[in-house]
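Example protein was shown:

_____
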Amino acid sequence: MSETVIAQQIDSEPAEPQEQRVTPLELFLDLVFVLAITQVTGYVSHDPTWSRLAEGLAILAVAWWVWSAYAWLGNTSGSDEGITRVVLMAAAAGMLIASLAVPHAFGSDGLLFGIAILVVRTIHLGAYTLIARSRGDRDLGHMVGVLAQSVLPASILLVIAGTQDGVTQGVLWAAALTVDYGGLAVRGTRGWTVQAGHFAERHGLIIIIALGESVVSLGVASTGIDLTAGVVTAALLGIVVVGAMWWAYFDVVALVAERKLRGATPADRVVMARDSYTYLHLPMVTGIVVFAVGVKVTLEDPSADLATVPAVALCGGVALYLLALSTFKRRNIGSFNQPRLVATAVLIGLVPLATLLPALLSLALVALTVVLLIAYEVTRYAATRDRVRHAV
């Protein structure tokens, strides 16, 4: 499907009036999740090994699923009214404890982490149950019951995992994630509804928050070290990459996705929301967080070459982000973004070089790749981009 045809489809799609928008209270909850993201970045970068990376990604996957659950709740309930206000405050408190436990979630604080997640998710199910009963919505009540059949077992598995260590603990974490993520895919979405504007905005904001955390990582990594020319250059290159990642999502992709979500039938809209946002935004956020790990290690000594895991993080994080964006387009529009797939392949190809070159040069090559990608897209699709961005 050509870019011109896509723009014509978007022009003809109606907007939904009087949708709720993201509230300050939802943003307050998001700030607590930022702490979890920051903790994951610090946890992996402190000792960048394969096991640490796997554990960090598992923690991030749990945190993302909890955040997604509350994104759906806010989309359903009107998130700054009535009982939902109290629910989000309580969830923020529980998630704060879970975030504080992140550095030792696979160690001494594993049980605390599991209990905090169980409490936060139980609060979520309770709030949904109250909403369904207050509205007399049997379909929603049924779906909450179905949701509980995966949420509660997965959360209990995490609690049990907190009492174990080694291989047993890893298996329990894997089982918990499989039950959680697989439950939504297997049991379907009948009974759910989605307000397109709110849902798209909420996920766009979490992308901004994740990108902002990458900037914070630059600042944290530079604390206590001399601001040499190499460190300053690395910081500037890091912000160039973060800016390009922002551009890749918000310049056109976010607009197209929201309009496609609005134009879908109610049933298709829920499935699209699940696939495009709940599932596919996770690798986007993961890519941002993983890149932040690589940048933190780079800033510690820009002249040194990178070990394998930091090299994978530096190049592979951005590659994963671009791949997820291209898959996002495939899910919503029906075709992959070819230039972004090429950039993804280039970034993956840079990983072996990044273990041989100075870290600063590796970061420069990553920045060059994404800048050239953005420049090509802006030039090649200028007319389509203008139509999408200024569609009435």
Notes: The radius of gyration is 21 Å.
